[in-house]
Amino acid sequence: MERSTPPPAVSAAAHRRGLFADNEPFNTGWLAADSGHEIYFEECGKPNGKPCVILHGGPGGAINPTMRRFFDPAKWRMALFDQRGCGKSRPNASLENNTTWSLIEDIERLREHLGIERWCVFGGSWGSTLALAYAIKHPERVESLVLRGVFLLTERELAWFYQDGACMLFPDAWQRFCAPIPQAERGDMIGAYHKRLTHPDRRVQAEAAAAWSQWEGDTISIRGPEARPSKFNEIDFAIAFARIECHFFANHGFFPEEGWILNKAAALKDIPGWIVQGRFDVVTPMEAAWKLKSAWPGARFEVVWDAGHASTEPGIVDALVRATDQAFSV
Predict the structure, then answer these.
(1) For residues 303 and 275, is the Cβ–Cβ distance under 8 A?
(2) How far is CA 136 from each of CA 86, 108, 170, 258, 263, rounded to the nearest angstrom?
(3) 281 is catalytic
(4) Which one of the listed residues 281, 306, 311, 318 is annotated catalytic?
(5) φ, ψ for residue 63 (rounded to 5)?
(6) CA angle at residue 166 from 191 to 226, to 5 degrees?
(7) What is the rounded CA–CA span in Å between residue 185 and residue 82?
(8) What is d(CA 128, CA 54) in angstroms, rounded to the nearest whole number?
(9) Confidence grade of residue 15 (pLDDT, cut at 50, 70, 90)
């Protein structure tokens, strides 16, 4: 079923769903992984509720209390974790054995640790990439998928945002993004940033991380700078975020071939899915979500006309909350 919400009106906005009430974790801890990584996780909601796992974006982001609020805490048992090198996971900002495949192993490690057979998998932006890759590798463990701001991690998407595309819509922000990079290196912005974000001098890392994070923050929402995550202003967070994100992108997501997710999309055919996409998403433009829907016709597809990329935009919140309510009945 395809659904496209109409352009916003006062009456429509008044009836939009909001986030559920905040809720505190009932279980937290660290899970030992390989290569010295320790993965921080938490469980929220109803201990014997329907299980779900919530995947944060980036790569390089971290979980936050708002992510718990897309699911009804009276019904769902929510599991969240900071991916390798992110948030409270240890060691911070580590790139060692930090790949898409090691993160998929961590999801399975967490599922087994929590004694869960199958669960709903929820993710936006990079979280949607990881959710799709996990579902393709372990379809028997996925009861449903709820995705937002679909990102397939293709060369076309990376070039759009980091080389030639989004810069035409945000020339002022692009100028700030280019500032730390000499003119001679600007033909490969991801490569130029990767060199600086892996530099042994933390001061070099910090300068590059601040500019990398600001570029994403400047483009994340149609609401402008007010939607820029405050954590981007914290240098430790910015370094981990930028280092890990650029590490994944410089390595093409560690996928064995271009377009791997779409090439393997047949594995999703029996999984119920919900795709929510902001019409004016500049970070992960709608083309990727449209291609995914074409390759996965059973998924429900909703376009939010007055939204960009951020998960907290009112129309995105409304669509995701309705999707998780529907997923509860699967």
Answers:
(1) no
(2) 24, 13, 35, 16, 10
(3) yes
(4) 281
(5) -75, 160
(6) 105
(7) 33
(8) 10
(9) confident
Residues for the chain: how many in total? 330
Q: Taking Cα atoms as reference points, which of 287, 289, 313 lies closest to residue 299?
A: 289
CB 100 within 8 A of CB 255: yes
What class, spelled out in words, does domain 2-154+255-328 have in CATH? alpha beta
- Which amino acid type is present at position 38? E
- The residue from 125, 128, 213, 221 that is catalytic is 125
Write down the pTM of the prediction. 0.95
**Catalytic residue status for 309:** yes
Contacts of 129 (CB under 8 A, 6+ apart): 100, 123, 151, 152, 153, 253, 261
Neighbours of 31 (CB within 10 A): 17
Per residue in 191-204, pLDDT tens?
A: 999 999 999 999 99
Catalytic residue, chosen from 221, 306, 309, 318, is: 309
Which residues make up the CATH 3.40.50.1820 domain(s) of the chain?
2-154+255-328
Active site residue 125: yes
Q: Which residues contact 9 (CB under 8 A, 6 or more apart)?
A: none
Tokens of 274: 């919900």
Per residue in 239-277, pLDDT (tens digit) is 999 999 999 999 999 999 999 999 999 999 999 999 999
